[in-house]
Design a protein that fits this description.
Length: 212
């Protein structure tokens, strides 16, 4: 049997809300939502969107982490799901368009700091945050960050299982052997006849994976 890797999105998948949007609403003012509309309409890449929006944020790492501390809501079952992956020797990797510093902090708070994760690299600067996406081969990307990691995992002969919720998951998920989908990703799969397993929380995924 092929070795199995679980590629999991973070914002709106592990969490119930997009943490980066919470930070932008609080620390960038409302102007960033003009860029959000352009990004959602496909007029702007995710790399350009995050560079422009987070350049407006002057807050420190500590200020932002303190702010989100009591605002993060996890989908039920995620710690148990991580444990099941360890028991079955499934490699669990979070690949997210979110920012590395808050993903690391949230995982650490759950006692799950050993989970591999790849996200936008964040450099703190008093003039504004600097954010960039780096592919597995070290190339700075403006788009297809998640896909670059999916291709790497497939090239390493993994059976890749994808877990996600949003538009940025459409393309990488379709490259994978199995999809667990919710929200926009689920609707996309259903509209296009793409096989997937719907989920509400990680307990649903645990039930399915216990049979593997």
């Amino acid at each position: 049997m092929a070795k199995t890797l679980i590629q999991c999105d973070f914002d709106d998948t592990v969490t119930y809300k997009d943490i980066s949007f919470i930070l932008l609403d609080t620390f960038a003012g409302m102007e960033w939502r003009d860029y959000l509309e352009k990004y959602q309409d496909g007029e702007m890449s995710v790399g350009e969107f995050n560079r422009l929006c987070f350049s407006m944020v002057k807050a420190s790492r500590r200020e932002m982490l303190d702010y989100i501390k009591d605002k993060v809501r996890l989908r039920p079952g995620f710690p148990e799901f991580a444990r099941l992956c360890r028991e079955k020797w499934f490699r669990l990797v979070i690949v997210s368009n979110g920012l590395d510093f808050y993903i690391a902090e949230i995982l650490n708070g759950l006692g799950l700091n050993d989970i591999e994760h790849h996200a936008a690299e964040t450099q703190f600067d008093p003039a504004g945050l600097k954010v960039r996406y780096v592919s597995p081969d070290g190339t700075v990307l403006d788009r297809d960050f998640k896909l670059s990691w999916t291709k790497k995992f497939l090239n390493e002969s993994y059976r890749v299982v994808y877990i996600g919720d949003g538009n940025s998951d459409f393309v990488p998920a379709q490259q994978c052997h199995h999809i667990f989908a919710t929200a926009s990703l689920l609707r996309h799969c259903q509209r296009n006849g793409i096989a997937c397993t719907p989920f509400t929380d990680f307990n649903d995924i645990i039930k399915a994976m216990e049979q593997w």
